[in-house]
């Protein structure tokens, strides 16, 4: 694995939020690529403004990256981030057919979410991508209880010893550097092909909420831009954003 990025690793007993810490460092113009790990967050944040519940023993890791690629490539960040996470978990825990990436970047095991990714960025006017922060939360030891959501953790499917958060962070750092290098080299086709292999099975029944609209259909993969392809009763939708849920054979989430 070709790794051209050097991460400066920082590990803290506790932080309010690893993403907020990285953003603070970015605003101070500390132009170092950081990998920030903490044993405990006191104010973690999830995607779409949701609270992220993080029992002790789970992974809280964020990267501050100063990109050399253009803002047009930002749309591929969820895909390379989730690939890095998937690859790290697979290397440390083994391969499982029920381990899948849900578009664009959630990690599921048996349709239970075990990890989420929060990506934040800053673009200088008019279109200069200045910095990126990629936050990764992985449930290693415990699955928090969230009303209305199916949540799991690595402990649910690993029979032996669980990997430490430090080891998981190290592996994610290595794979993230690899996939960032692929993106820098214009290998979006490879990224898309690799992601599709690890994503939900084609033909899965989904419900997708995008804006104020809700769609039900069949998963057809992603297009060349990374948009979700959903075959509804009337047309093939190309969705650039949205929240999706897998449906069982009875049509339930």
From TrEMBL:
<feature type="domain" description="BPL/LPL catalytic">
    <location>
        <begin position="1"/>
        <end position="184"/>
    </location>
</feature>
<dbReference type="InterPro" id="IPR003142">
    <property type="entry name" value="BPL_C"/>
</dbReference>
<dbReference type="Pfam" id="PF02237">
    <property type="entry name" value="BPL_C"/>
</dbReference>
<dbReference type="GO" id="GO:0004077">
    <property type="term" value="F:biotin--[biotin carboxyl-carrier protein] ligase activity"/>
</dbReference>
<dbReference type="InterPro" id="IPR004408">
    <property type="entry name" value="Biotin_CoA_COase_ligase"/>
</dbReference>
<dbReference type="InterPro" id="IPR045864">
    <property type="entry name" value="aa-tRNA-synth_II/BPL/LPL"/>
</dbReference>
<dbReference type="Pfam" id="PF03099">
    <property type="entry name" value="BPL_LplA_LipB"/>
</dbReference>
<keyword id="KW-0067">ATP-binding</keyword>
<keyword id="KW-0547">Nucleotide-binding</keyword>
<keyword id="KW-0436">Ligase</keyword>
<protein>
    <recommendedName>
        <fullName>biotin--[biotin carboxyl-carrier protein] ligase</fullName>
        <ecNumber>6.3.4.15</ecNumber>
    </recommendedName>
</protein>
<keyword id="KW-0092">Biotin</keyword>
<dbReference type="InterPro" id="IPR004143">
    <property type="entry name" value="BPL_LPL_catalytic"/>
</dbReference>
<dbReference type="InterPro" id="IPR008988">
    <property type="entry name" value="Transcriptional_repressor_C"/>
</dbReference>
């Amino acid at each position: 694995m070709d790794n051209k990025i050097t991460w400066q690793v920082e590990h803290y007993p506790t932080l309010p939020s690893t993403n907020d810490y990285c953003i603070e460092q970015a605003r101070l113009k500390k132009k170092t690529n950081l990998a920030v790990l903490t044993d405990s967050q006191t104010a973690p944040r999830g995607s779409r403004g949701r609270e992220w519940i993080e029992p002790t023993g789970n992974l809280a890791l964020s990267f501050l990256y100063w990109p050399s690629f253009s803002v047009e490539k930002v749309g591929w960040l969820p895909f390379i981030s989730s690939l890095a996470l998937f690859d790290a978990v697979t290397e440390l825990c083994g391969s499982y057919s029920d381990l899948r990436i849900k578009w664009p970047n959630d990690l599921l095991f048996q349709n239970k979410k075990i990890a989420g990714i929060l990506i934040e960025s800053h673009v200088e006017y008019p279109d200069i991508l200045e910095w990126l922060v990629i936050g990764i939360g992985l449930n290693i030891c415990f699955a928090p209880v969230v009303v209305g959501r199916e949540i799991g953790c690595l402990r649910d499917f690993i029979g032996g010893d669980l990997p430490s958060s430090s080891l998981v962070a190290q592996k994610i750092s290595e794979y993230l550097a690899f996939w960032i290098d692929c993106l820098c080299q214009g290998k979006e086709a490879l990224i898309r092909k690799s992601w599709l292999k690890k994503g939900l099975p084609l033909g899965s029944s989904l419900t997708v909420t995008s804006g104020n609209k809700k769609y039900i259909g069949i998963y057809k993969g992603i297009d060349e831009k990374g948009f979700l392809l959903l075959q509804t009763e009337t047309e093939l939708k190309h969705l650039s954003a949205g929240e999706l849920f897998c449906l069982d054979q009875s049509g339930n989430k």
